[in-house]
Amino acid sequence: MRNGSFPLAAAVALAWGVVYVFTQVLADPPLGVATTVLVGVGITVVLTIGYPSALRGPRSARPVRRPAGRHGGPLAAVGRSMPLRSGLTTEAARRAVQLLHPVLGGDSVAITDRERVLAFLGPGSDHHTIGDAPQTDSSAKVLARGRTTVVRSKAKLGCPHPDCPLQSAVIAPLAIGKRVMGTLKVYRLDDIPPPRGVVEGLAGILSLHLELAELDHERKLAVDAKLNALRAQINPHFLFNTLNTISSKARTDPEEARRLLLRLSDFFRYAVRQDRHLVEFGQEYFFVRTYLSLEQARYGERLRVRYDVEPQVLTAHVPVLTIQPLVENAVKHGLADKLDGGTVTLKARVDPLTRTTSIRVSDDGVGMDPDVLERLTSGAGAANGGVGLRNISERLETLYGERYRLDIQSHYGDGTIIDLRIPLG
Amino acid sequence: MNVASLLVLAVLLGAVIVLGLVLRPRRASTLEFYLAGRRVGVMTNACAICGDYFSAASFLGVAAAVYASGLDGVWYATGFAAGFVPVLLFVAAPLRRFGEFSIPDFLGRRLGSDRVRLVAVVVVQLVILSYLVPQAVGSGITWELLVGDGIAGLTPYATGVVVSTVAITALVIVGGMRGTTWTQAVQFLLLLSAFIWLVIVVIASGFDYPRSVAELTTDPLANPAEVDGQWRLEAESNRLEEGELAYFGHPGGRYGPLGQITLIITLMLGTAGLPHVMNRYFTSPTGTAARMTTVWVLGLAGLFYALAVLLGTAARSLIPGAAPDQPWLAELTVDGVLRVPEHAPLVLGRLYGGEAGLAVVAVGALVAVLSTIAGLLLASAASWGHDVYERHINPNATQRQAVWAGRAAVVVVAVLSAALALGLRPYSLTALFPSIVATMVTWAFALAGSALAPVFILAIWWRGTTARGAVAGMTVGAVTAVGMVAAATVIGDRSIGELLLTPTVIAAPLAAAVTVVVSRRTHPPAELDRLWAKLHGTAADRRAVRLARLTVTGINGPDGGKDSEKKR
Amino acid sequence: MASSGGHSPWADPDEGGQWVSDLGDEYDMPTDVDAAFRTLRRVAVGHFMVFLGVVVAVPVLTLTVDWWSEGRLIGGMTPSFVMAAVGLYVFFFLLAIAASTLSNAVEDRMLGDPEPPDGGPTTHAEQRGDSP
User: Fold this and answer.
1) Are C102 and A59 in contact (CB under 8 A)?
2) Is any Cβ of chain A less than 8 angstroms from the Cβ of B566?
3) By the CB < 8 Å criterion, does C77 face chain B?
4) Cβ contacts (< 8 Å) between B566 and chain A: which residues?
């Protein structure tokens, strides 16, 4: 964790410097030592109090997140986008082939893995179909030896199809370390083979992507799996109830119903599309308030919500889809069973000195029995209709290791408080 | 006084009026008349607010106060500039988002009460009147120096008052606010360029700002006073330390231990309650734009006042050296010190630019007066025409009738303020309060800051504010402020009078406390959530921004729109 | 074209029109407004305290520290003259920029969709860019 006191120390040092320059160097006569020290101490105290205060926070407009790859020509696209970053799959290979085709100087381009053709673009695609085993002998050779091969005649290419128009080819291996994972093949319709250097170079880049993909894959696999599990868990009861609410409002208040429908689509849009593991708190906050406004439509006056958000928190990064499940638990386990309803409070703070983001979700609902608490934390709660806190804590562990805290306090009949502390990022 | 400067003056005033006519709204709908259709760019609006705000008190008064009392005079400038910080923090964006016509309308809607509206109208009219009078006095003083002759048997002072009042009343009646938004902005730029020109020529002539301050501080501060019919210099006594003399660069020339703080707080809170400035906020397209407008106003105000302080210092430092060689200056001075400190920038203009220079500065002063009077009259018209006539006298009024009611109100208020200005003889008051224009403007700030600002800020930021609380708060604030100032005119501005002259520091907390106490005993209006969404929500802003984008896309065609999307 | 696969639906140019035309979409929930209001109030009060502290500090220093009105800074001006004649205006302007940018950013993030389909934040930037 980066040390949060550094910026403060720098600011204090700067302040003392300014005080010194103004009172001792520029001024004539210089200010007395005692008063100077007093002024310096005063400014230091103000800075220290001000550092974690509401005066700090986001100052810029939101960064606009744009879908990548809308600009530039194919060459630029090859450099910028990494088609095989997600591994050697049919879809990735198809995109790679489409990207590379114009650059490689061949008539047809193909990518195979060890067993099958993953993508083929250009003449000959009628019989070099995707999903088949690589038909040419030369492919087999490259896969076996892991070296680039240049084929100059149709005979050596060894395509079993008699009418195959392909005459020459450069076949380069795609490898992770020594392991050959597949091939990149560039064919031409005449007997002058495509430039070997270009093909080899691009195959090298693609190999690198594959290697990165594998590393990524191993690291992210666990987290991704849990994120997917969480998305899949978006509670069918919630959807059903919300749709019910909307359809009942459709007659009495169509405008409200339309708004709710929009909110519901916002909700799903956000839940489904998150591909990152950390997002700005502001975005998670949007998700939480979308969710709570839908629940408020359902529970009416019984569900009261109070947010207490410091400006500084808005740009702090938090794990995606973490806060909403906590809030959902508060609504479902805390307030749903309480006749006169209650208040859910979301309090978010940042302590820049210790560089922690603390998020507290509390409710004044019915509270939990110790054994329910136990079940929730152990993950069995998911089966119970609740969203497993276990899922969240496991994800937090993968992301932060030991540097997070997730505390739950609950007494039966006295509400629940969930405290989450994560490193400020 | 010569023909050239009169000619410049006439041409300029003519240009201002023509601009007002050319840009006058095509259809005289009330919305257009009062609020210029609500689409004014951030920078234009910032300039227009400055035009409204910088009155004779800023243009002549600040330099005069610095001239007369040195460091302590600077506090006027600081207070005038500081006033926009609370406006920015507490008022600008929510006020625009709520989107009513005027302060009384805002309070009336927010608290759901006609009584609040009427009480606010009364306070607003009082503020406007007490702001108008010093402007008229300022134009009278300027005319006196610039033209020196009266027309039709009036004294020069009276002529200045009458001419400026008539001219600006005609302009407001003809032009409405669109005319004045643009002319207001142009007028401010004119004002600023007059100051910048003056500063450039003064500095080019070898004026060294820091050294002058040091030199002026070596001898005690002395100002002319009339003793036994004879004008002579009297050293100012230090009000911080008994028995000491005051120095230009040191505190104590004007305020005792409490004076600075009370003055600053009075000016600081007063701005948030000035109707003509607040009405400008309704012309911003969105709340965010209103906020950014205020930031620019603060920047421009800082620049303007820093220059004004420099000019006051320059006048003090340079005029004694020039006085012996200039016969015209000898009439105005006693041993090289001006009898009326308000003359300082004008004299500098004449010293460095001849007759034309005097005309430029005088035009600046008159424009400052004119633009402020225009803003005040329009605010007055809005509050009579919209808040009283349309709501209470003739609820079925057509747009035309409402506009005419506003125009009639303009005439009445203008005549009233001119009459009050004529009734005051500035020379007699100068003895009691140096730099009379700035002092009188302070009274308007005191009233606005004591009666309107606390209630206003509470209504925006405290859900519990109620109509009864607001009425009680405004009444208590207004009565306290008026009572204290009235007491001060008897006591003078020494010791306790200092506090009485700037009553906000006592009256505003009192008004706020009364508002809170009474509000706690009554119930806030129903539908608070809806009001809150309007006041603090940005949905309308976002809609407006979307609509604007859509319009822009419509103009540039969909391809243009896509291009800009790509660039993002 | 190669990269157009797998995007979220609102990036689709064909659907863009449908989103833009529906101006009624913008709506604030009362609880959201209340939350933004609280945070903004905190920002405003915090800045006001700093403002008040600095403004009142100048006269207080005058009364308590002799050096404040006797010492010489730049050329011949006393620290208190420098502060009153120039320093405070610069301070006001900087404070105004700090407060307004923070408030705008908070409103941007706490109300409305954080990533509106037609790129709302840019418009805010344009609005600010209105001024030179």
Assistant:
1) yes
2) yes
3) yes
4) 70-71
The partner residue sitting opposite C30, judged by closest CB among B533, B546, B548, is B533
pLDDT in tens, B4-48: 656 766 776 677 666 655 655 444 444 444 444 445 567 778 888
CATH topology of domain A233-423: Heat Shock Protein 90 (3.30.565)
β A342-351/A303-309 pair status: parallel
Domain extent listing, chain B? 3-429, 538-568
Cα-based distances in Å from B149 to A338, B6, B155, B476: 85, 12, 7, 45
Residues in CB range of A383: below 8 A, 6 or more apart = none
Tell me if A314 and C1 make a contact (CB, 8 A cut-off).
Answer: no
- Multiple choice CATH, A74-211, 2.30.30.100, 3.40.190.10, 3.30.450.40, 3.40.50.720: 3.30.450.40
Please state the domain extents for chain A: 5-50, 74-211, 233-423
Task: Find where tokens 């993002």 sit.
Answer: B568
Sheet containing strand A149-151, strands side by side:
A117-121, A108-113, A179-188, A168-176, A149-151
**CB contact burial B527-561 (16+ within 10 A = b; e otherwise):** ebeebbbbbbbbbbbbbbbbebbeeebeeeeeeeb
Angle CA(B192)–CA(B196)–CA(B202) in degrees, nearest 5? Answer: 145
Q: Which of C44, C69, C96 sits opposite B250 (nearest CB)?
A: C69
pLDDT tens figures, B103-127? 888 999 899 888 999 999 999 999 9
CATH class of B3-429: mainly alpha
Chain C residues lying within 8 Å of B261, measured CB to CB: 56, 59-60
The tens digit of pLDDT for each residue in B498-556 reads 778 788 889 999 999 999 999 999 888 778 888 999 899 888 888 877 776 666 665 55
Pairwise CA distance, residues A375 & B123, whole Å: 65
**Residue with tokens 């040091």, as numbered in its chain:** B214
Taking only residues 11 to 70 of chain C, the set having a beta carbon closer than 8 angstroms to any beta carbon of chain A reads 11, 24-25, 27, 29, 31-32, 34-35, 38-39, 42-43, 45-47, 50, 53, 65, 67
Residue B504 · residue B261 · CB < 8 Å: no
Lowest mean pLDDT among A378-392, B143-157, B255-269: A378-392
Quick check: B561 pLDDT over 50? no
Comparing alpha-carbon positions, the chain A residue that sits nearest to B562 is A70
Please tell me the distance from the alpha carbon of residue A89 to that of residue A119, in angstroms, as a whole number: 9
Closest among B54, B63, B151, B9 to B346, alpha carbons compared:
B63
Answer whether B141's CB lies under 8 Å from B342's CB: yes
Q: Say yes or no for a CB contact (<8 Å) between B566 and A70.
A: yes
The label of the residue with tokens 């270009």 reads A198
ipTM over 0.90: no
Of A18-27, A111-120, C43-52, least confident by mean pLDDT is A18-27
Give the Cα separation of B177 and B485 in Å (integer): 33
| 3-class state of residue A172 by DSSP | strand
For A386-407, give one letter per residue: b (16+ CB within 10 A) or e: bbbbbbbbbbbebbbeeebebe
Whether chain A has a CB inside 8 Å of the CB on C115: the answer is yes
Q: Mark out the alpha helices in B205-242 (DSSP H runs).
A: 209-218
The CA angle A24-A25-A26, to the nearest 5 degrees, is 110
Per-residue pLDDT tens for A201-217? Answer: 777 777 767 766 666 55
Q: How far apart are CA B322 and CA A128, in angstroms?
A: 101
- Residue among B75, B78, B537 whose CB faces C28 most closely: B537
pLDDT above 70 (res B94): yes
Q: CA-to-CA distance for B83 and A81, rounded, in angstroms?
A: 53
CB count within 10 Å of CB C46 equals 20
